[in-house]
Automatic annotation (TrEMBL):
GO cellular component: extracellular space
Pfam family, one: Lectin_C
Protein name as it appears in the record: C-type lectin domain-containing protein
Alphabetized PROSITE patterns for the sequence: C_TYPE_LECTIN_1, C_TYPE_LECTIN_2
Gene3D superfamilies to which the protein is assigned, alphabetical: Mannose-Binding Protein A, subunit A
Amino acid sequence: MNCRIYDSTLAHIEDELENQWLKKQYPDIKTATWIDVVDLGSEGKWVSFSSGKTANYLPWDGGEPNNYDSSEHCAFIFNGGTEKWFDGNCTSSLNFMCKKKISV
């Protein structure tokens, strides 16, 4: 995944309002999509991959994060009727969502 080519970063969903907005804007996302939340540095300590700041908003699906096979350290969304998050293996080839700051 490389958002840098778009002069952006992986999308970090910061609160419920933003999560709901994404679900409304992209109701047909039927594939897993990476977002900017990882626990690569310390198991269970979820942070922004881009900034390293602690991720305070973590709407996990039931049973998530489960770190299946001790190899799931990156978060993804799957809008198949839910706005909940899942953890997955960071080396999996998934879609990704970028976020770009704009000047007004």
